[in-house]
Amino acid sequence: MRITSIIVLFSLYSTIINAAPTAVPTLEKRQETEQDPGFNTNIFDSFKPLEVTASPITREYTLKLAKAELAPDGFSRIVLISNGRYPGPMIRANKGDQIVIHVKNNLNDFTTIHWHGIFQKGTTFYDGVAGLTQCLIPTGTTFTYNFTGGEQYGTYWWHSNFGSQYVDGLAGPLMHVIVYTIHDPKDPYLNDYDEEFVMTLSDWHHVYSEKLPVPNSGLISGRGRCDCSKAPQGSKCVPDNPLAVYVVEKGKRYRFRIINIGAEAPFTFSIDQHPLRIIEVEGENVKPVTLNKINIAVGQRYSVIVNADKEVNNFWIRATIVKQCIHVSPETINVNSSLNYMVTGTLRYNGAPDAYPTTQEWEEKVLNCRDVDHNLLKLNPPRPPPANPTDNFTFRITFDDFDSVGHALVNGFPFKPELEDPTVNKMMYDTTPSMLKQNQNAFVYDTQNGVVEISIINENMATHPFHFHGHNFFIMGQGPGKTPDPTQFNLVDPAVRDTVTVAGYSWTVIRYFIDNPGIWAFYSHIEWLIEMGMVGQLIERPSELKNNPIPPKVKGICPLDNDDDDGDNNNNTAKKRSLKVYKKYYKRSDIPNISRHVRYKFMRGSAY
Question: Does pTM top 0.70 for this prediction?
Answer without folding.
Answer: yes
